[in-house]
């Protein structure tokens, strides 16, 4: 009697995601040691559920990219602000030195 391969549902869905993302059923089946027919059945069985998960992942990926772009913009603004602050502090220091030279008794 042939031994049956028991696989958790989450793992099955991961294999289905691979197939739906563009890989051939035969290639994915061979890579994971499965029968192409079994994997094809899983694809038909879990396709609707996995499609929803793939859409959610795509939305999350878009959100992450937007957040990364926003973070880079904020980081650039912060660096500009720090640079400006440094310039202002330098300017204040130079002006104080000039005042001290002209009025040595001034604190």
UniProtKB/TrEMBL annotation:
Keywords from the named record: Coiled coil
Coiled-coil residues: 43-91
Domain of life: Bacteria
InterPro entries on file: Homeodomain-like_sf, Transposase_8
Entry keyword annotation includes RNA-binding: no
SUPFAM superfamilies in alphabetical order: Homeodomain-like (SSF46689)
Pfam families cross-referenced by the UniProt entry: HTH_Tnp_1
Signal sequence region: none
Keyword Protease: no
Name of the protein in question: Transposase
Gene source species: Paenibacillus pseudetheri
């Amino acid at each position: 009697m042939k031994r049956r391969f028991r696989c958790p549902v989450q793992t099955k869905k991961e294999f289905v995601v691979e197939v739906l993302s563009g890989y051939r059923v035969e290639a994915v089946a061979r890579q994971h040691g499965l029968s192409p027919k079994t994997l094809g059945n899983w694809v038909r069985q879990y396709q609707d559920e996995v499609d929803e998960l793939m859409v959610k992942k795509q939305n999350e990926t878009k959100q992450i990219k937007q957040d990364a772009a926003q973070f880079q913009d904020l980081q650039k603004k912060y660096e500009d602000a720090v640079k400006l602050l440094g310039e202002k502090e330098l300017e204040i220091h130079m002006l104080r030195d000039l005042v001290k030279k002209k009025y040595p008794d001034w604190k």
